[in-house]
UniProtKB/TrEMBL annotation:
<dbReference type="GO" id="GO:0005886">
    <property type="term" value="C:plasma membrane"/>
</dbReference>
<keyword id="KW-0812">Transmembrane</keyword>
<comment type="similarity">
    <text>Belongs to the FtsL family.</text>
</comment>
<keyword id="KW-1003">Cell membrane</keyword>
<keyword id="KW-0131">Cell cycle</keyword>
<dbReference type="GO" id="GO:0032153">
    <property type="term" value="C:cell division site"/>
</dbReference>
<dbReference type="InterPro" id="IPR007060">
    <property type="entry name" value="FtsL/DivIC"/>
</dbReference>
<dbReference type="Pfam" id="PF04977">
    <property type="entry name" value="DivIC"/>
</dbReference>
<keyword id="KW-0472">Membrane</keyword>
<dbReference type="GO" id="GO:0043093">
    <property type="term" value="P:FtsZ-dependent cytokinesis"/>
</dbReference>
<protein>
    <recommendedName>
        <fullName>Cell division protein FtsL</fullName>
    </recommendedName>
</protein>
<keyword id="KW-1133">Transmembrane helix</keyword>
<dbReference type="InterPro" id="IPR011922">
    <property type="entry name" value="Cell_div_FtsL"/>
</dbReference>
<feature type="transmembrane region" description="Helical">
    <location>
        <begin position="35"/>
        <end position="54"/>
    </location>
</feature>
<keyword id="KW-0132">Cell division</keyword>
<comment type="function">
    <text>Essential cell division protein.</text>
</comment>
Amino acid sequence: MIVAQKDYNYQYPPYTSYDKKPDKKAKPNAKLKNLILVVIVASLSILVLYRYALIYEKSLALDRLEKQIEYTESINQQLRAEIASLSNPARIEEIAKERLKMQLPEKDQIVYVKVGEVPKVAESDNPKEPHKKDSFFMRLLGVFNR
């Protein structure tokens, strides 16, 4: 069997670029745009860092205030306990007897006073109109005296 060789004839055009444009130099406007973009990004990053610094500073101040509140509350609790111990009636009686030389009153030294009953002033005939005899001016002064 005879195999015939085929003749492949591939013709490729030479590699040349016809629409090749000359290299353009970077325009000054592009450099300016890049510079403005860098300045904007830098200023935004500085702004974000500044805000985080403020937040950190405020959190430190908050921590200090919380510690101060805890300290003040502990002192307040200690003072309440001291007040409770100092206002004990038995302790007050002991101080009155020993230091101030006081003594309990005897029966003939006690005077009872009635509290709660108000002495009544002359009543009018008609209880619905107690101030009928007073003038308008006197009633007005009575309002301001209260």
